[in-house]
């Protein structure tokens, strides 16, 4: 068989379900192979930022690597920002990047560029095919590396290796297990917690943020008199009955300092030490109280779930009964829309087992603040800060979970990056409801200008942070890409529109026009999720 | 003054007129600086592919470096594909990429990544600011490098260097001149041409493609019995009365072989040796007849214009009278639309001194084939093959030349990459008329499948090359971004729509629905421009 066919057959053996793609001429042998080899579904996207974000969303939901197929250096380049987010989410995305035929590479044809350099900043592994015969084995290397590092892996596939005969499917070893945390380390942390010398904060991240993981941590916290926090911008966090509500690490450094005030120990469990999202004058990079000692139980790649389970045993917390968490009543959205009332409307109408993709930016933090009132769901967020992840990740999550409704809480500025995702949602008939928080501004930048002491931006600064003149008509854009859409301006209308969207299959977009924002910073309201 | 202010003041001194921007928090000091320092206009775009493509288009028209302002690694990443095209166009784009404050960089905050690695494949020069005091001088280094190499240059500007006081505007030396071609080389080429041992093809590229440059080459060809060709996909080519029509190097290698058949010498004048756009089985990378000898008069960076002028003198061609080129009558577009009739309608209605940005891909080659019938104009094309350049380059060209109408002949698949450019066209009131060649397919990929022997693509391949289900409604998308739009299906309607668009100021989009394509390859019709 051809190299391309052996690669795809091996991808199937490896459990890869979907390949999100935007192919070109160098990928033609792989395009053909989808018709020769069953089992991996090809999903087309109109631009590569959608391809990579969708692969991230798919893999976040399935835990299985999703594949991308991209066209040479420029195709990869267009997908890098969402691969950056996938890297921060520790998502095992498998990129296959078509490259010129080996004998054609020295000619430096117009589309030639250094694909390896481009791939390295976002990949835990970068490699090249060496022949049609070896391509499948090299794909397995990429696959194993993606799972070993929990990072994107990038295989650069030369066109002649793909179109040539001589390929053979390769065996796929069992997925590498996450490295275990040493028992001694767990014992040390248990001793620390049990010693009771000052209050402890348990900071959960990565794959611990399941209902089970959060409950286990809450039992430990209850036993040792600590509190559970979750990392800012988790790749995926579950909420539902019996999942105790937990606080998130805030965005601005002064707020991070504040939430950890009074704690003596911070125990990292699959999470990194909190770091300021940006460096601010007079603020430290690690915004933690001086007296807070940081201890790592498990890093983001280790088996933090198992470590947490063992820690619960060792601390005698495994059997702790958690207080029965009543599902609170969510607020009722009324009148002109705000970030808070948009979140309230989503919570109020949210179907069971929804996947909420939150790229609300300055409108985003309002949702997790009240999400305990929602039925069981999981939330996926922007892990790397590269905007334009919301619509693509929602697309990939919907492909991964056709039986679960997807709600995309989406800032307008970020939506403008990768709005082409709507077309794939329409084509695949995906059950995604997008709520555009339309404030027609880069509101987070206005907040940053104020932090920099600019209360009255000049004309140029005002222009560079405004999305008005003209305001984008998101309903028209959505319809252009094949997604039915409507516009709402009040909480009541939004509730009604959400109910209709949830009742109908297929994608919908609701443009939620925010009321005039006040210039004053309302606590939390301007904080990005 | 602040580092950011010194940088911007120096940019002004250097002649930079416009900074296309999509800033974030790390760029706030530069955002502020636009209000403190006059002279450089900031133009916002909704995504970075628009920013970099617009800078390319602006610099192609003005010859002066255009600046970009991008947000960290992900912002640069989103703009890389059009910087790849700018690199191939040899356009001096000046990228300023905001970076975390120096003291915050070791913390590896979520948005941190290796900006230098990302920048290198598209830049002739990459550097970092070292302090507020040195930032302006470092900007000058970037500026000089961009002009010396005729390539994008990338300066990574740390936020603390930008916000700190101590900046001072720097002196800007005269723009580096292009390296001169040695007289001896010119004499050798002259001797070769005058010897008359076989026919010579003069291949023009780069900055020689002005009315004057083409005329000079035509005089030499007339004198020595040769023929003038122009490189495939020129960054900018002028046409008009007295500019002799010249043949382009074709796209497919077998066609390249054919056009140079019968020639003994190929003289490169600011152009590279023709290279196959992709490597095809059984085809060489350099598709030239065996007996064709290649000689380089001037490479793409040298002063090919001056070398051409001298060559004309030395060959005794300077005074050759060219046959008076009559402007031919263009064909009249009638009935269902084809690539040919779209080109005909554009030519028929084209205002004087238009700038035609041609990213027609499979509908693109029809335009240059008949452009001699159009009034004086220049054409900008996709130099690097990274699709999504048309709308951004048209935007930048329109900002550069507010008194010239811009016509963007635009393939639909490529339009979907950077359609956000329409918003900037609306905001800035740019006189751009976009004609979407809507065939709802990646037609070039269908052609490539047939070249690979696949006459009847399977379902997966058909899906991966089709833009149908749903077809994009380009008029809705355009209106969503603030650009008035309409749809046409016949040559007569297109002529009418173009006339209306040209008569009104501001941007317009016309969706030109192509008739059902035949599966047969019509010579030239499927050849990308």
UniProtKB/TrEMBL annotation, chains A, B:
Query: Where are the annotated coiled coils located?
Result: none
Q: Listed GO molecular functions?
A: acetolactate synthase activity; flavin adenine dinucleotide binding; magnesium ion binding; thiamine pyrophosphate binding
Could you tell me which residue ranges the Thiamine pyrophosphate enzyme TPP-binding domain spans?
371-511
Q: Which SUPFAM superfamilies match?
A: Thiamin diphosphate-binding fold (THDP-binding)
Question: Which superkingdom heads the taxonomic lineage of this protein's source?
Answer: Bacteria
- Domain Thiamine pyrophosphate enzyme N-terminal TPP-binding positions: 1-106
Q: Which CDD domains does the UniProt record give?
A: TPP_BFDC, TPP_PYR_POX_like
Instruction: Write the record's keywords in alphabetical order, separated by commas.
Output: Thiamine pyrophosphate
Family, as annotated:
Belongs to the TPP enzyme family.
Q: PANTHER family, per this entry? A: ACETOLACTATE SYNTHASE LARGE SUBUNIT ILVX-RELATED (PTHR18968:SF86), THIAMINE PYROPHOSPHATE ENZYMES (PTHR18968)
List the protein's name.
Acetolactate synthase I/II/III large subunit
Native source organism of the sequence: Saccharopolyspora thermophila
Q: Gene encoding this polypeptide?
A: ilvB
